Fold each of these.
Amino acid sequence: MAQLGFLLDQRYCIGCQGCETACQARNEAPVGISLRTADSFEYKESAPFLTVSCSHCEEPACVATCPVKAISKNPENGIVKTDYEICIGCKACIAVCPYGAPKYSEDKKVSMKCDFCADRQAAGENPACVDGCPVKVLTFGEVESLGGEKSTEGFEYSEKTKPAFRFIKK
Amino acid sequence: MILDKIKDLLTTKLISRRSFLKSSAASGIALLGLTGCASEEEEIKTVEVITEEPVLKEEAPAQTVAPREKGTISRQTCPRNCYDTCSILSEVKDGRITHITGDPTNPITAGGLCAKMNHYLSWVYHADRVLYPMKRVGAKGEGKFEQITWDEALETIATKTKESVDKYGPETVLKYYFSGTLGFVHNYGMPHAFFNKVGASELATTVCSETGGATVPYTHGKNLGVDPEEIPNTKLYVSWGASEATTNVHGVKFIKQCKENGGKVVVINPIRTGVATFADMFIQIKPGTDGALALGVINYIIENNLQDQDYIDAYTIGYDELKTAVKEYTLEKVSEITGVPIEQIETFAKMYGEIKPSILRTGDGLQRNSNGSSMVRAITLLPPLVGTLGAGANSGYYYGTGGYWAPDAGPLTGKELLENPNRRTINMNELGKALTGGLETTKELPISTLMVFNSNPMAITQHGKLVREGLAREDLFTVVAEIFRTDTADYADILLPATTFFECEDVHQDYFGLYVRHNSPAIEPLGECKSNGDIFNAIAKKMGYTEPIFDMTNTEAVKACLQSETLVSQGITYDRLKENGWAKIAIDVPFGDKKFLTPSGKVEFYSEKLKEVGFHPVAEYVPTAESKDGSPELFEKYPLTLMTPHTKNLINSQMYNIAQIKDLMGEPVVYIHTDDASKRGIVDGDKVNVLNDRGSIVLIAKLTSTITKKGTVLSFSCPWPKLVEGGKSINEITSDRLSDMAGGSTYHTNLVQVTK
């Protein structure tokens, strides 16, 4: 299997944040932590709306940086995953991620990050955020076949890390 | 800049794991804290020290991912007062729900829940659940309770209720309930047998959609919405006064599909809604003026000969009167009233006259006004004018699908036990007045016992000050059945622990589409919780009532609801529902037979019946009771229209006590247009007072130039008062005035001032 990535259809994303709370619930994220952060149409003045989690970069800075090698990239599907047993919560991954995707949890003393719901995928399910999108504008698949554009307002494609995130722009 | 340097260092130099053993992590963490706790100079030096002796990074351990372990699946229905009424799959392990998701096979739910209900597990297992019966030991409203046994609770309730009935009469007992859960069994059904036996006052539950619901039949004969799953197949979708992204988020995908299929989307709303952000046209109208817009559009259509004359000739009456009545609504006049530019009115009218098929949807929001009925009446004239009503499954009008509700709670309510069919009715919108003797009837015969279930009136009922005064009455005996200790519960003499829908059986039907849905309990009731039905049966028995209806179990009640003609004839059985969780009701094309249940049997552009009840027989623009045109003096004092619609983060007053939801939503705000704010010296984030003669509350100002227009302010309804600053929620200042038809609510007819 090749590198997996997310595709967001911004033409119809309404900023309902269903993806964000589905992610929180799946990850049992401590209050105040979102491993996927989405714009809210009730707060943002105008579209387009964006929702961002870890983009499972092709060349992830976090993997290269993690001093204790808690973060690994799956060679088969490209999922970048943190082993919370190994993570020491040093926040190095947060600092190097161009998108600030990992979030430090004071409760758990680790830097938490989207793992593409690897266990759900292994069980034949979609990532929680994809299922949690009631408008069906957030999808995933092999990044090469997703189409879309690599950058959008508020998300600049990093040539250094090559995030696996694509957009159908408004 | 410094942060960039650090990033470079970290990405280009490799760090040895040996430098960072977990046991010595404390200092290491602090040193690499990078985001500015120590001085940046120091941090950089430290990073360089650490990376002085780079060692080739060892491979991280390969990912071993075991598939997620699933629990035993059971099927529920989200019972909230929401169009969607989603089908839920929950997984249970060792008696505990471990995971929930939307049913992927249901075409409306389609796999996902919504932003708020994804956190249902934090709700059902919340540490603050009321798990045992309690009696109040502090002052009313103070919230001090002591656990008691069920027997003591029931004994107290029975004794006090008998005392009320014997001393003051059965009508001094009042039930107050609405839609905390919308189940046929636990909301519409079982609890009412007890109240019918007592002979308690009836409650008119007209807070939501009754004004519009009572109006539509004057035009179409019956309120029959199209199947919303046809929205993708229509060519023009008009969202008029609806906020699908908030109250019907699972419907948004159908609107998206409509556009993807080449259709056009128009949104008419004072508030920039979620769907407005992708609509082809967004008409941001002055609140309460929709009737004028509709009449102006009708006038334009007629003047430009865009009406469907064949349809009008065959299936309607009163076209000539309509023509005459709308003449005065010129583009100029309508633009002046509504604040909508002339070109936009023209463009929309042309679209609506030319693009077919179309579906015109009215939301509940616009009819929650003093002129709600007159506005809805004007809008309902549009589909027959252009011949879309009944022209096909993908064509016509939509004001919900409640008209197709098939389960029947009637057999559960014990109507035959009611001795006095003329007992009085109290309008729920007037609870404050009712409790404080503000109604003629309650001045004469005050309410002595109040029993609340499925509702939190202290949060949701208008004119909060009066409600609070009423609930605080020392001579009022109050029973509250609740899941949490709400503001209302704090006034209870006896507080009873109610189950959530995860703990009891029920049956539902959504009012967005056409699905009957079953709710199986996933788990045993927590603590000593009981379902609403069981609670009122237990009270009935303690009262000494022996009728067999009070022995009915929840399962028997569900089965009894399913004996309706529609369900039986369509083979929608208990077993089938339990197995699959839901079943779709088959319907004919609404008005496909062109039979309209009006007095004339045709669509009535002119309605004699409407005239009889005091309205213009065609339609007219009536300003709201609190507006520049409707109350100029009040407007001088309070020049801003406050709208209090729902937020996507809450369902009425529910969910703000869930920490994740509170974090997502933040403190309650009032949206105010930048022009209105600057005039008042208000900047974003200021604490401001929002006030009128009914009261005053403190909110945080959020400046906007898109979400509301000048002259309109907005605050979402409604967190529990006790969870917000000052202990007062938005309904402190909403009006308990009734609408122009069916005793509906008028939340959005509300003038306020905002001060710093």
Note: The first helix of chain A runs from residue 18 to 27.
Amino acid sequence: MKKLWITLTYLVFILLLVVPIVKIFTGAWQEGWSGFIEALSRKQSLHALMMTGMIVVIVTAINTIFGVMLALYLVRATWLGRRLKQLLNSVVDLPFAVSPVIGGLMIVLMLGPSSIMGAFFEDIGFKVVYALPGMVLATLFVTFPLMVREVMPLLQEIGSQQEEAASTLGAYSWYTFWHVTWPSIRWGVIYGIVLTVARSLGEFGAVLVVSGNIMNKTQTATTLVYQDVENFNVTAANGVALVLAAFSVGLLLIMEWAKKRKEVH
Amino acid sequence: MNAIFRSRWWSFGFRTTIMLYFVLLIVLPIIGIYTQSFELGWQPFWDSVSDPLAWRSVLLTIRLSVIATVINVLLGTMIGWVLIRYRFPGRRLLNSLVDLPFALPTAVGGLMILLLLGPNSFAGGLAEKFGIEIVFHEPAIVIAMVFVTFPFVIRAVQPLLEELDKSEEEASYTLGASKSRTFFHVIFPSMLPGILSGAMLAFSRALAEFGAVVLVAGNIPGKTLIASVYIFGEIESDNPQGAAAVSVLLLTLSFIILWAVNLVQTRRLGK
């Protein structure tokens, strides 16, 4: 009986996860090394990968800072009432429930050229939708809960005693944060960063809606894969997808490592 | 005195910035989409939703998501159980592989399915011989949904199984209960909250899925067009009002599910 279950588990993993990943790797080599290089060295591929890289860096930086701060407030702040805290706490999860396409639509509705705010920004020469700022906003929306949800349980677990002791002893709040709070939430933050990078690297729906998918301008790696498939250029799509998949597997390895460290501390 | 004054202003500024960011980024857009779809009153909202293509796409999404969730509950319960209870070579590796669908871009997931089961592939050709159509038909959508939501049930069931007190199980065996009886009367009830919350999360994710599905579904209106792709189409054809109306339908459903998950989890913690 035990053997049967283990075999079945292996079967599911191999069929659902291993074979597809292997297929991406072999598919990219279908036309040999040169086909792969050719797919990647197209102007739009390089540009798309650069856009993705930029979004990942900006989003991860902003999301980390704001996520950690918000988690601190939601757990520690005394100036927020209990009820309000609970309400905010459940609002944090909302982006998980929102389809990425709807997330993108929200930004287009709020900041698109036909909206009040969008028109205002357009007037001062700052393009939001169909440009990088909108794409960053969309990705921020989608990745928002990841960091908060990683850090909050850690903060709850360590309690506020040590921090209170530090501030009673006269430490500044900055000092308390760096020397008392930070060491215990460090691995949670790192795990949150890895999750944010993975999600912003792979974000597709929200970015597709907001960016308009304009080649060499607002196209990201994932939307390029989509366009290549739509154009029946599967080998090219495969090349870009391979780069993304390799990154994801790398992130998965870091995730495992961070998880282990998190459990130790 | 001056220093205190300054630090108080600092912390006030910080608080305001963080809260403003939170409200502007998350709360405002969600309110915005609800107001947009009801801006012109009920009638246009009703017109957009009662368009046969619209409600058919929503129904199709719900139906396929239910199928995908059921598959995932069965697979997830089994895999969660095997990974926690049995020791076998490769267990750690499989355990880390579970998270792969979270780490992988969904568009890449869709492309993988297309490559594996597409018309020119080995598996696709085989299925075609038997008269089963996968890609650009419903099975492909279900496969994409299963792939994307694969980790949810497993990750929800595992901690519960780890917590489970072995003595209860042993007591059941000692009292002469059979293996299956013990499973259904002792082990299964304590796994149930995890299975439920995992299933609901998987369901809401399947409802929302876009990237993996859009590549494999073929998107034939009324047949394989799911709700999120329908919304995307409406945006592309410059009909934000119609897109917003269907979005509201989908969002409300997801919010209810999320609220139910919260309820299940707080009840478990409260126990």
Note: Residues 1-37 of chain B form one domain.
